[in-house]
Specification:
mainly alpha, globular
């Protein structure tokens, strides 16, 4: 039996590997995870590549206080293959 990797949303613990694998604009991500970045820096560590937490779409929207829009997602392969991002961009392919 094959097991999927488990990358839990930091807030709700939902496995983000299923449908929530995406990348957003760096400035939006920094805004969303600013508390975690401060905590890491206070411990004397330097965050590497800003990938210190995973967030599902719903929890990211809650943190930024608005719905995500297509311009939040840079043209990366993971975004091109994500059904949620494709819907935002008006593509049903």
């Amino acid at each position: 039996m094959r097991h999927l990797p488990y990358f839990p949303c930091f807030d709700c613990r939902r496995n983000t590997v299923l449908n929530d694998y995406y990348m957003v604009d760096d400035s939006l991500w920094i805004f969303a995870i600013r508390a975690e970045l401060r905590e890491i820096e206070n411990l004397g560590f330097v965050p590497i590549r800003l990938c210190v937490v995973f967030l599902c779409f719903h929890c990211l929207e809650r943190r930024i206080g608005r719905k995500l829009v297509s311009s939040d997602f840079p043209p990366f392969i993971c975004n091109e293959e994500n059904a949620f991002v494709r819907r935002l961009r008006g593509s049903t392919e």
